[in-house]
Amino acid sequence: MDGHDSPQTPKGSLRKFLEQLSGAGKAIGVLTSGGDAQGMNAAVRAVVRMGIYVGAKVYFIYEGYQGMVDGGSNIVEADWESVSSILQVGGTIIGSARCQDFRTREGRLKAACNLVQLGITSLCVIGGDGSLTGAHIFQTEWSGLLEELARDGKISTEQAQKHGHLNVVGMVGSIDNDFCGTDMTIGTDSALHRIIEVVDAIMTTAQSHQRTFVLEVMGRHCGYLALVSALACGADWVFLPESPPEEGWQENMCIKLSENRARKKRLNIIIVAEGAIDTQNKPITSEQIKELVVTQLGYDTRVTILGHVQRGGTPSAFDRILASRMGVEAVVALLQATPETPACVVSLSGNQAVRLPLMECVQMTQEVQKAMDERRFKDAVRLRGRSFENNLNTYKRLAIKLPDSEIPKSNCNVGVVNVGAPAAGMNAAVRAAVRVGISEGHKMFAVYDGFEGFAKGQIKEIGWGDVGGWTGQGGSILGTKRTLPGKYLEDIAAQMRTHGISALLIIGGFEAYLGLLELLAARQKHEEFCVPMVMVPATVSNNVPGSDFSIGADTALNTITDTCDRIKQSASGTKRRVFIIETMGGFCGYLANMGGLAAGADAAYIFEEPFDIRDLQSNVEHLTEKMKTSIQRGLVLRNESCSENYTTDFIYQLYSEEGKGVFDCRKNVLGHMQQGGAPSPFDRNFGTKISARAMQWISSKLRESVGKGKKFLSEDSVCVLGISKRTLLFQPVAELKKETDFEHRIPKEQWWLKLRPLMKILAKYKVSFEVSDASQLEPVQPRGPEEPAAI
């Protein structure tokens, strides 16, 4: 393989890494099976390239298990270029089919024979629970199948002995997210993108005509898509297979819809999973619901069935990164496997790649179905996992307002303020905070235009109905400013006194974090600041200490990825062209690095990994080599502040000069389009859930002090709420100070830097890669006391 050592990698560590993980003499078969899902191609690409990278042979198995049974031209060795340009394509390029033959022992005998002839003893299966169960059966029967084949003279005894065991690693590709043990399956996020695009479009027409829309989404046995899209668009009602509506739901739903209309809401959205049932396990159909609304309320009602649109289209940035991480992890797992290793699934828990025992996950997934069949719906929801349960509780809380008479008043006023630059998803966070606050009995106050508006007294009480329809709005409706509170402390304290503000929720980026530190420091002077204060990170740069993710970064990443897709297409047309694209992020390289991974870039220059002229030189040589292959285009990302002197113009000029006669160069600065646009499903959902959680924290702090009239003086009453690895954590800002590089406005340690080598390997650079500890398979769903951070 050509390509140079990435200059950042000492030769020794690379050698050691490749020795540890040598694929020499191994043959890996990769297949996609069952229903297709966006992101499967990204997974196939990662398996092929990582396999080749470590010296293994990788074979495409076309048309799923059918191709394995039929053999011949269905099993073909793949090379580096066979998976070029597929990252942005939905579906699966190697095809998928439902296969009856493989369910019989005869079929599996043929399949085993075909694999042994090519020496394939490692399988990577990308599919749903059916496909993975098939792989498990195949693995357990393998030695028996080979004995039989040897007896019948189909293979030699040497072959049978040499290939005596099969290793299987699965990745779950399914848009339903119906597999237990994994937080997100490949394709789920993209399916949500399709659903939300449709809902946003339907809302404008429904608004015009005061219509009610019944939307049917996929999910025969799993309500995940229905639930999350209902949460992300603020639907009036949702029907799920796991949590059927109580007896008498017909009347309750109609009351709810008419109440919403009475609050001046011009439309109703009802979301139905295709497998929706009532408590007697009878199906509830979209048509039934429509009939009900028309006859009971006389509203103009339309049904839209989304169908296969949800499976189609280009994979989202999240799915591409997820699938690329899983694909590489799957190859590592296969190389580390021994004859005793049971079949495993690679999946995501919070933000970490984990390996789980395949059959335990499958059994648990089947348990959910069993619970639903036996009408044990509480168990079904519990078995789906804590993130599903959290989503359901959050949805109920935000969708249904209790009558004022039933909400016990707390006599507390809570302020909500946006600080910093706008980020998509901020409004979803404000909506969730306001509604949770009201449901906990507080009065909610909106502060307009950041700390500056705070000082000027731009503060208004905000009600339940005022935040209706906010989840899908980009930017910041409250208005946001980068100004810090430092110079307005007197005025802000006075406003807090005037409005009797007893807690503060700040939604914003690095300025919000600095602002919190300033308010904390001002407590001695101004007792008004001795109240609980919590910050929810919202910035496209994803540079807030105390959280792995921030609201708005996913939307920006999708904008970057979409633009890169278009640019790559243009470059493919002109041939031999390299694009240099500048992304935002201040000194934080998150957008450039993850955008590079999602768009299949050749290099991404970031501040966190210093580079010099030799690196630039090596990248130019690498691209020159690439132009000799059939992939005649290049894509290079550069973070806006990665280097003072190696500016985008400098790199453009250097590449243009060095590439003369081989390739030409274009540059593109993406700019503020990265801050705009409608929030992605991830950001709506993340914003909603994390902000609701922050409000609950505020309420519990306020409840502690009831009747004591106590001032909050301790540092743990000023926190950042964030996701760290797998958990939701409240961390005092005072403690986060030591983890912060204030000069460059970034955390000192950033988790995503571990994914740097991934991008380089997939772009054919030789680097070493930190490998997870092989031997441990995790138990499925450990239930610890900490909060799960699944989105």
From TrEMBL:
Task: Assign the protein's first listed, main location to one coarse class.
Answer: cytoplasm
- E.C. code: 2.7.1.11
Which residues does the entry assign to the active site, renumbered to this chain? 176 (proton acceptor)
Question: Where, if anywhere, are coiled coils annotated?
Answer: none
The positions annotated for binding Mg(2+) are 129
Q: Where is this region: C-terminal regulatory PFK domain 2?
A: 413-791
Query: What Pfam families is this protein classified in?
Result: PFK
Provide the cofactor list for this protein.
Mg(2+)
Molecular function (GO) terms for this protein are: 6-phosphofructokinase activity; AMP binding; ATP binding; fructose-6-phosphate binding; identical protein binding; metal ion binding; monosaccharide binding
Q: Where is this region: N-terminal catalytic PFK domain 1?
A: 1-400
Please state the pathway this protein functions in, per its UniProt record: Carbohydrate degradation; glycolysis; D-glyceraldehyde 3-phosphate and glycerone phosphate from D-glucose: step 3/4
This protein's record includes keyword Metal-binding: yes
**UniProt subcellular location:** Cytoplasm
Record key words, sorted: Acetylation, Allosteric enzyme, ATP-binding, Cytoplasm, Glycolysis, Glycoprotein, Kinase, Magnesium, Metal-binding, Nucleotide-binding, Phosphoprotein, Transferase
**Protein task:** Catalyzes the phosphorylation of D-fructose 6-phosphate to fructose 1,6-bisphosphate by ATP, the first committing step of glycolysis.
| HAMAP family the record matches | Phosphofructokinase_I_E
Known partners and oligomeric status: Homo- and heterotetramers.
Per the similarity annotation, which family is this? Belongs to the phosphofructokinase type A (PFKA) family. ATP-dependent PFK group I subfamily. Eukaryotic two domain clade "E" sub-subfamily. Belongs to the phosphofructokinase type A (PFKA) family. ATP-dependent PFK group I subfamily. Eukaryotic two domain clade 'E' sub-subfamily.
Official protein name in the record = ATP-dependent 6-phosphofructokinase
Gene name tied to this protein: PFKP
